[in-house]
Design a protein that fits this description.
By secondary structure, the protein is of the alpha/beta class. It contains 16 helices and eleven strands. The chain has a seven-stranded mixed beta sheet, sandwiched between helices. Strands 1-2 form a two-stranded antiparallel sheet. The radius of gyration is 24 Å and the shape is elongated.
Length: about 425
C-alpha cells in the first residue's frame, strides 16, 4: 500500500455498497411481492402492501420494485438476528433480552452495520465488555447522551450482541473475540468499522457530483482509518489469494523472488511464500509497523517507503501489484509501471490484479468508490493497461480472470 491502497479488495458481486444487502433478483409473480433468496434466508415476512408488476415493465422498473419490496420486509421477524435457541418473543427468566449466538457481522443490512460500527468505534461495546453497566453509567463514562446511549444499547441487546438484565448491559462472551480480539480467528471488528465508515462516506456522493472533489483522499499517508482498513483488506483478500498464487507461481522458478508492492495486509504474500517463493512486502511505514511481526512469522521480508518515490532495489523475479492502480490516474500508473520494470530482472514477470472495465464484474461501479475516496482514481480498460505497459517497455501482455472473483490478473514480461 505504499501511499495507496484503500478500497476493498473485492467489490460485492451485485450493486451493493459494502454492508448493504443485495437486491433479490428472482422474478416477481404478478400481483404479489416475493421475498426471493435475500428475504427468505432471513425469514422475513412481507409487508401488507403489495407491489404489482406487468410483463411490459422495463428492467429498470422491475429493479425499482425489487428495491421497494426488499426495503418493505419486516426485519424484526428475522430469526437469525433476533434469537438463538429461544423462539422469537420468548424471554429467559434472568434476562430481558437474549438473542443470537452467531452473527454474520460483515453481512448485516445497512442500518445494523451503522449501529454496530458506531458502537464499536465510539466505545459502547468496549465499555460493557468486562462489566455490566446501565445506560446512564455508560453514558457518563463516555460523555454521551443518556437517551441515545440507552436506545443504542437496547438495540444491540435486541440484536443479540449484549445481554440486558435488570442491572444493565453486558457484552455476550461469544461476541467478544469476533468484535474486540484482533488475535481471534474470527475477528472482524476492524472490518465492521471500515464498512460503516465507507457507508457514511458514500453519502457525500451528491456533493462530489457537483464538485468532483473526494470526500477524503485515501492516497495520502496516515489517512484516518488505516488500521481498520488493513484488517478489512486482510480479510477480503483471503478468498482469492490461493487462486492468484496458483496462477502466478507456475510461471516462475521454484524459490523465485517476489516484490509485493502495497502488500501490507499480507494475505497474498503469505500465499506466495507458502508456495515456495521468497517474498518482500513493500508498503508505507505505518502499515509495515502494524504488520511487521505477523509477516515475519511467515518468513516474509518487509521494506517501508512510498512507491511513488522509489521501490526497493532488485532485481526481483516478479513484482505483484494488487488492487492498487485504481487509486491513481493514468500518468501516475504509467510512471509506476516504468519504475516496476526497473526493479525486475530480465525476463521478470509483472502481475497487476485489478478490476478491468469491460471485463471484470462491476468495474464501473467500483470506480464510484474511487470517485468518493481518491482525487484521481478510476477503473480502466484492457487497451489502456496494454498501452501503459507496452509504453513502459513490457511485452507479452495478457489478461487472466481470477477464479471465482470479480477481478483480473494483468500479466506482462520484462524483455530478457
Amino acid at each position: 500500500m505504499a501511499r495507496n491502497k484503500v478500497a476493498v479488495v473485492e467489490w460485492p458481486p451485485l450493486l451493493e455498497i459494502p454492508s448493504i444487502r443485495p437486491i433479490a433478483r428472482e422474478p416477481h409473480v404478478h400481483g404479489e411481492r416475493t421475498p426471493g433468496k435475500a428475504g427468505a434466508k432471513l425469514g422475513l415476512k412481507p409487508a401488507a402492501k403489495q407491489v404489482t408488476s406487468t410483463s411490459a415493465q422495463s428492467a429498470a422498473g422491475r429493479d425499482h420494485q425489487k428495491v421497494q419490496a426488499f426495503l418493505s420486509w419486516d426485519f424484526t421477524t428475522a430469526p437469525g438476528l433476533r434469537h438463538g435457541k429461544e423462539c422469537a418473543g420468548s424471554v429467559r427468566s434472568d434476562t430481558i433480552r437474549s438473542t443470537v449466538t452467531d452473527i454474520d457481522y460483515t453481512g448485516l443490512e445497512w442500518g445494523r452495520s451503522i449501529i454496530v460500527g458506531t458502537a464499536l468505534r465510539d466505545g459502547l461495546i468496549p465499555a460493557v465488555a468486562n462489566e455490566t453497566l446501565t445506560a446512564e453509567e455508560t453514558a457518563q463514562r463516555l460523555n454521551l447522551d443518556s437517551r441515545a446511549t440507552h436506545i443504542m444499547l437496547s438495540t444491540l441487546a435486541e440484536m443479540g450482541i449484549l445481554d440486558e438484565t435488570a442491572n444493565g448491559f453486558r457484552l455476550r462472551d461469544e461476541h467478544r473475540g469476533p468484535l474486540l480480539d484482533e488475535n481471534h480467528e474470527k475477528y472482524v471488528g476492524g472490518s465492521v468499522i471500515h464498512r460503516f465508515e465507507l457507508i457514511t462516506t458514500w453519502t457525500n456522493l451528491p456533493e462530489i457530483l457537483k464538485t468532483g472533489l473526494p470526500a477524503e483522499d485515501r492516497t495520502r499517508p496516515n489517512f484516518e482509518g488505516t488500521a481498520t482498513f488493513i484488517h478489512q483488506m486482510r480479510l477480503s483478500a483471503r478468498p482469492g489469494a490461493e487462486g492468484v498464487a496458483a496462477e502466478v507461481l507456475p510461471r516462475l522458478e521454484r524459490g523465485a523472488t517476489i516484490l509485493d508492492v502495497g502488500g501490507g495486509p499480507g494475505t497474498n504474500a503469505e500465499a506466495f511464500a507458502s508456495g515456495g517463493a521468497r517474498v518482500t512486502v513493500f508498503d508505507r511505514p505505518e502499515v509495515i509497523d502494524q504488520m511487521r511481526d505477523l509477516l515475519a512469522a511467515s518468513g516474509i521480508a518487509v521494506a517501508a517507503g512510498d512507491m511513488n518515490d522509489s521501490l526497493p532495489d532488485g532485481p526481483f523475479d516478479a513484482v505483484y501489484f494488487g488492487n492498487t492502480s485504481h487509486m491513481y490516474g493514468p500518468e501516475e500508473n504509467q510512471t509506476l509501471f516504468a519504475r516496476m520494470r526497473e526493479t525486475l530482472a530480465p525476463g521478470g514477470l509483472l502481475v497487476v490484479r485489478e478490476f478491468v472495465r469491460g471485463m471484470s464484474d462491476d468495474a464501473a461501479l467500483f470506480a464510484v468508490n474511487m470517485l468518493i475516496i481518491t482525487a484521481r482514481g478510476n477503473t480502466y480498460t484492457a487497451p489502456e493497461y496494454e498501452d501503459w505497459l507496452l509504453g513502459a517497455g513490457f511485452e507479452a501482455v495478457e489478461f487472466v480472470p481470477v477464479p471465482g472473483r470479480g477481478t483480473h490478473l494483468i500479466l506482462a514480461r520484462n524483455p530478457a
